[in-house]
Amino acid sequence: MKNGLLSVSCLVKSGFKVEFENDVCTISKQGKELVKIPCEDGLFVLDEEQLAAGRCSTGEAQAKCVNKAPHTGCAHLLHRRLAHICFKYVSKMPDLAEECNIKPCPNFLDCCACKHAKVKTCNYPRSDRVSKKPFELVHTDVCGPMPVKSLGGARFMQILVDDFSRASWVFFLKEKHKQLPS
C-alpha cells in the first residue's frame, strides 16, 4: 500500500469502527481493536507492517477501502501521461508505435481528474434578445480580489464585453465599489 489512501467511510460501511482521539486513530471491528495509528504531521499514516500486523487486511475490506498507488505499466499510466486521453485511443497505441509496451488493464479505475472535468453545469438559458448595433447590450463582470495587487494597486478587474461586436475592455479597480455603472 505505497502512498495509498484509506477510505474511512468505506471502512465504516464494511463494519469497522474508526475513532479519532488525542492524535490517534483506532480501527476496530466487533469490539476488537485491530490497529492504532498515530498522527504524524497532521496525517494518520498506516504502513504495510501495521496493516498486516493489525489483522486489518481482512481481504474484502482491504480490497475495497485501500486505494493503492496508481497503475504503472498499464493503460492508466499512458492515459495520465497523454493528458487524460480517452481509453479508446489509449488501446489503439500499440498498433501505432512499435515500442509502445502497454499492458491492458483488467481493473478499470475511475479517473478522478476525468470525473471532475466532466461534471455538468447548468447552461444559461438562450436569450431571445439579440443586439442589432454596438453598445446596445454590454455584458459586465467583476473579478477579485486578486491575491497580488497590480503595479497601480488594483485588486479587482471589471470586464465589459459588447454583445454585438464582442469587443472587450478590462478596467482595473482598487476597490470593488468603484466599478463603472452598469
TrEMBL record:
GO biological process terms, semicolon-separated: DNA integration; DNA recombination
GO MF term (any one): DNA-directed DNA polymerase activity
Keyword tags: DNA integration, DNA recombination, DNA-directed DNA polymerase, Endonuclease, Hydrolase, Magnesium, Metal-binding, Nuclease, Nucleotidyltransferase, RNA-directed DNA polymerase, Transferase
SUPFAM superfamilies: Ribonuclease H-like (SSF53098)
S-adenosyl-L-methionine listed as a keyword: no
Domain of life assignment: Eukaryota
Gene3D superfamilies: Ribonuclease H-like superfamily/Ribonuclease H
Name of the protein in its database record: Retrovirus-related Pol polyprotein from transposon TNT 1-94
Native species: Podarcis lilfordi
